[in-house]
Amino acid sequence: MASVTSLASTVDQRIADALSAALPEAGPASPLLRRSDRADFQANGLLALAKQLKGNPRELAARVVTSLPADDVIKEIEVSGPGFLNITITDRAIIETLAARAADARLGVPYEPDPGTTVVDYAQPNVAKEMHVGHLRSAVIGAAMVEILEFTGEKVVRRHHIGDWGTQFGMLIQYLIEHPHELDHKGAATSGEEAMSSLNRLYKASRTLFDSDPEFKARARDRVVHLQAGDKETLALWQRFVDESKIYFYSVFNQLDMEIRDPDIVGESGYNDMLEETCRILEESGVAVRSEGALCVFFDDVKGPDGNKVPLIVKKSNGGYGYAATDLSAIRDRVRNLSATTLLYVVDARQSLHFKMVFETARRAGWLNDEVHAVQLAFGTVLGKDGKPFKTREGETVRLVDLLDEAVERATAVVREKAKDLSEDEIAERGSQVGIGAVKYADLSTSAARDYKFDLDQMVSLNGDTSVYIQYAYARIQSILRKAGDAKPAAHPELDLAPAERALGLHVDQFGEVLAEVASAYEPHKLAAYLYQLASHFTTFYDQCHVLSDDNPAELVENRLFLCDITARTLHQGLALLGIRAPERL
Ligand code: ARG
What we know:
Belongs to the class-I aminoacyl-tRNA synthetase family. This is Arginine--tRNA ligase. GO terms for molecular function: arginine-tRNA ligase activity; ATP binding. It is found in: Cytoplasm. By secondary structure, the protein is α/β, with parallel strands linked by helices. Among the domains are: about 5-90, Gyrase A, domain 2 (2-Layer Sandwich), CATH 3.30.1360.70; about 400-575, Isoleucyl-tRNA Synthetase, Domain 1 (Orthogonal Bundle), CATH 1.10.730. About 50% of the residues lie in helices and about 10% in strands. The strands form four sheets. Strands 1-2-4-3 form a four-stranded antiparallel sheet. It has a four-stranded parallel sheet with strand order 6-5-10-11, with helices on both faces. Strands 7-8-9 form a three-stranded antiparallel sheet. Strand 7 and strand 8 form a beta hairpin. Helix 6 (about 170-180) crosses helix 8 (about 215-230), helix 6 (about 170-180) packs across helix 9 (about 230-255) and helix 17 (about 500-510) packs parallel to helix 20. The longest helix is centred in the middle third of the chain and has 24 residues, at about 230-255. The model has no long low-confidence stretch (mean pLDDT about 95). The structure holds arginine (ARG). Arginine binds next to helix 11 and strand 10.
């Protein structure tokens, strides 16, 4: 496994060296290199430098050009505009760099030099409740971040902070005690659908009783006390709700083609034993104070409409613990027992104030500090086609399973229409890979913070910024490679490249840099954009450069097959990091 230096960083380094040779008085300065339409790269760094040195930027640029030694990477360099450097690199360097990438299983992408441990909190549905599109976002974005971080060498611990604790369980358990056959199936629940429908029924029935019968309400409240005190019988019934819900969760995650492992599910209940201690530490250190009977943390910049400070309540006046106490305990656990250096929370932006207060509290308590920091990767709301939060016509939240079913159905129709030599089974399999991929891609391709419209027609379209377009590019390459027969991909650095070949090659070479940026800024949408551009570059290349033409000399065929192959491998790897399949045939 050898990591490969990208052409961008090779050029950047050479220009930086020439810069300090030509202008020693400038000290170390960045050439500020970027891809450009005019040449392959453009360096803008001399403008700021000229200002600093009070010189003429074009003149300084000319001096840098003169002190740049001739080499086999930079073919041409010229001064343009107010003092930019336009750099063209050799065809040979492009193919040689890609050949080095092709020889490596990781496509030459380097590991982070100084990895840490990130605990990713994502895919956190709630027990006895239906999953909705919000849970989809957390799961999809979180899973992509897990894969991307792991790929860069970060140690990742996954945590599914499911909602499995709280007062509603008193109501549910009490109802089950009084209606013992409600969760019975003929044996265990056989499907997620069945599990969820009995949970739903039970939830509704117990809620109705709770709201209408004061005596039941009192018994339900007592039940919460038993639950929190760890009463055996109560806990056993609670466990049945959790187990039943997990059958449902797993079925949804399975449909989402997402691997969730049982040991990584540590729900709110998992921190129950720490709550008291967490509160004691906060109170004794003075981070939290008593206010109207509750244990609270105050912040100068968090105020209600009346101008009074709104506290984070860690313990209610009735002695109960809430969401905040659990999250604070989870932070202690993740820092102390999991040795986290970063805590990443993939949670709805509507919980941002909660996390802001929780993180600040944890900093005051010393649990977070310069070595350990916490970030919320906050995501926006999923909107319907009308631009309003996604609801059914009856005004209810849309069930995630219904959405996924519909996506797969639409995608299957698209696959069927295009399919030439696919069997029914293959159509069904591709339909689900394309449909689920489309849902994930739509979610990942806009920046997480923004709201987006859930528009299935657009998502499964073959044209435009969709996963289907990328999957088709991949499948087309595989079809070319199959058709090539005895001709095998092989790099030929001695050949001259066509413009579309250069553009494709240079884009492939950027993969590692894009990944590094995506990993450090938690921005998976930039990987999605990169892959879409890569597929577009491939489409242009395929239009302009015949690969398997009889008129082509053998070396040209091999070199073009080589470009096809490394493009396919990059697409495949990139899609895999986003949790999207790349079928070999479509
Ligand atoms: N279960 C919560 C919900 O459905 C999300 C949990 C987020 N994670 C956390 N550590 N608070 O909204």
